[in-house]
Amino acid sequence: MSEVLERIWQHQQISRVELVEHTGLTSGTITNLTHELIELKLIREFEAVSGNVGRRRVMLGFDPSLYRIIGLDIGRATLEIVVVDLNGKIIKTIERDMSDRKGPDDYFEVIDPLMNELKREIETAGHSILGLGAGVPGPMDYSAGSLLDPPNFPGWKGFPLQRTLEEKFGLVTLIEDDARTSAMAERWYGLGRSVQDLVFITMGIGIGGGVVHGGKIVRGTNGLCGQVGHMTILLDGKICDCGNRGCWETVGSIPGILSRWSGGNTMEQLKEAIRQGDAEALECMENTLGYLETALINVYNMYDPELVVLGGRLYPYLADYLLPVQNHLRSRLYAFAKDRLRIEPSTFGTSQSAVGAAALLFGFLLSEPVRLLALNDGA
Ligand SMILES: [Zn+2]
């Protein structure tokens, strides 16, 4: 069943005959499995015109009518909730500024009424919620479903987030580091449909990374895999929150960039100063791009991804420089790999983590549909 769902996801629309060809299962088995999936309202049939003769064929695709998934992003300055259907289409987005709120109690004062209202709204409309995904600043304790001690996120150390969300809202809940949720947004709903190996780099107040290899998130022994913001860029640089010295984050994140410029306190001000040709601002950006290039060449040589996706609140300020950065990278990369260099902006902009949190549940559905539906029946 999982394999059939995965093929349908990959192709978005596929016929039963093609499913037989792609999976190697017998047509009888495909008929039975697809019948069961249609009964479960996970997939549906529709007619599509195919080929140059314009013949109408019965195709299969995900059924967007019944199920909804909720994605929640708990950020340092913002809270975002999205509702998506089984095609990854965003049905609703809610955003709140959280910059003056500290710690879980403050956050749940906002989350509780929003979530309860949203659940009521979805259920009243006759939809069924498959589950809730949440993205949070890492690092995390995966066995306990809690946050470890995220930098610049006071009050959350050791907070049992997964259990709390499950108890409060009665939904199957998965939580993940926000850089990894962002990577999963691309993996399932964005550029990653045909890509098995990708690295998502999110740049904002901090710099995080999510590594997808063979279609799966790679966490590493201590959950630190893909912490690209903490690669050493300057041997004698500043001490970082992680304990290391000269991390990329200390010079390449928004606070890191602004700490190297005396002309203002915001990226907007820096952008304006660059536009006016201010020498110090130009030098600051030149160094920023140099650090970015160094970080990217390290990412390429370490992970050898098919695709690198850049996102986060800093990205819009770097977007104009992406082409020259890629050209420099080609001159620094192994010659045989340089033509395959592929760097793209995030598909979902600042909603990347919330969409990816929902995508965690979609990934669960594709790998273990029967178990997820059984958990829902028991919830
Ligand atoms: Zn660090």
From TrEMBL:
Keyword match DNA-binding: no
Pfam families in alphabetical order: ROK
One GO term of the biological process aspect: D-xylose metabolic process
Keywords, ordered alphabetically: Carbohydrate metabolism, Xylose metabolism
Protein name: ROK family protein
Family according to the record: Belongs to the ROK (NagC/XylR) family.
Main function: Transcriptional repressor of xylose-utilizing enzymes.
Top-level lineage group: Bacteria
The keyword Ubl conjugation is annotated on this UniProt entry: no
